[in-house]
Input
Amino acid sequence: MARRKKSDYEGRQEYVRTMKLPPIEVWENKYPDRDYKIHLDILEFTCVCPKTGLPDFATFELDYIPDKWCIELKSLKLYLTAYRNIGIFHEHVVNRIVDDLVAVCDPRYLKLKGIFNVRGGIRTTVEREYVRDEDSHRK
Output
């Protein structure tokens, strides 16, 4: 069996789940009895390649069905801007953002699609979908 070659990236993302970022604020949804979708286009996201230190640019498409809380947009903008100087993989960016959004607003449904600009002739698109398990939520 072939052994996996050690990657230059090993150890560069150990902090991804615990790094401190600005808080995302929420406001009370006055229509929690209704299922309706909120769509956000986030056009100016930037982070840094963890290997080269060069900037990465992306567009995000966020869809969610709120329950009791909606995402406050100015705080979301400040949260996303904090990634500007962070070296992070595209896959980790999308997963971390979804984790943080779900933790703060507890939506019924949320999908985030990150469309990263071409790098080395390759366009990366990362998509994560969250669907709340109603059985576990009722406990």
